[in-house]
Amino acid sequence: MQEPNWLQELIDHLHTKHASHYEGEIATYIPELGKANPDHFGVAVVTADGRVVEAGNSDVCFTIQSISKPLTYGMALEAYGEERVSKHVGVEPSGDAFNSIELEKITNRPFNPMVNAGAITVTAMLYQHYGERTFHEIMSRFSAAAGRQLEFDEEVYRSESRTGHRNRAIAYLLLNFGMVPEHVEAALDIYFKQCSILVNCRDLATIAATLSNLGTNPITKAEVFDIDRVKDMMSIMFTCGMYDYSGQWAYRVGVPAKSGVSGGVMSVVNRQVGIASYSPLLDSKGNSCRGINLCADLAQELGLHVF
Ligand code: DON
């Protein structure tokens, strides 16, 4: 179905408005990410009934990075149930950076599954459940949500695997506190691979639309996530998805969202629309500057804020 022109015109207008802004820096702590092109800027919107609107470099692929975290969290909840998962990872915003090594005081759990510590714990749990099949399961689930077979970027994976000492330290700290099982290196390897899965804005907006459509991909009609888990995934994205910017994001934009350090931002408007943007220029908290500003404008224009 053809989307009404007004939405295409609005997306084109906002894309043009923000494309000229070169605020922010490309992440280089994963060396391979430093090769990103600062001119690249794409946006895609997929409605919960499967219509697609795109602008700019919406077909340029980038690694999903932390946007993988709510998806693997949903998978862990499906595999283990909420009670078991909550013994290993909390649901409180940490107010700290995404790579914080801080754990909760009494429980020693990571604060939430959106910070690296929580996401590594979740992947370790998936490894305990799925064993050697884990990455394959993650890849198939992400592909079903995107509506096409995805691939991963071998170079980015190797680059992070070689330099991810901080994540290794976090994983071993988690092992020390019994939050993850013995196979720390295997879990880290899968975590680095899951972060290296390649998507473009259209894929990411389709994943967001799948969440918006209560777990069913609105284009392929595949049932990807359990409806109850979608609620959990969106709740945690709302409170923790933008790390130590989450409060401001909730205030300013007011929809569940997740950012990744390669420059993607995925936002979900419940039962209405999935929004994705890509621009590798990041603010000091690791969120895409153009992505934040474009989404804030779009939320304002369309009245997307939940309140
Ligand atoms: O673990 C890391 O540091 C990366 N693979 C993912 C971090 C990330 O995307 C943070 N987002 N802004």
UniProtKB/TrEMBL annotation:
Keyword Heme (UniProt): no
GO BP: glutamate biosynthetic process; L-glutamine catabolic process
Reaction equations catalysed: L-glutamine + H2O = L-glutamate + NH4(+)
GO terms assigned for molecular function: glutaminase activity
The keyword Acetylation belongs to this UniProt entry's keyword annotation: yes
EC number(s) recorded for this UniProt protein: 3.5.1.2
Family in the record: Belongs to the glutaminase family.
Name of the molecule in the record: Glutaminase
Organism placement in taxonomy: Bacteria, Pseudomonadati, Pseudomonadota, Gammaproteobacteria, Oceanospirillales
Gene expressing this chain: glsA
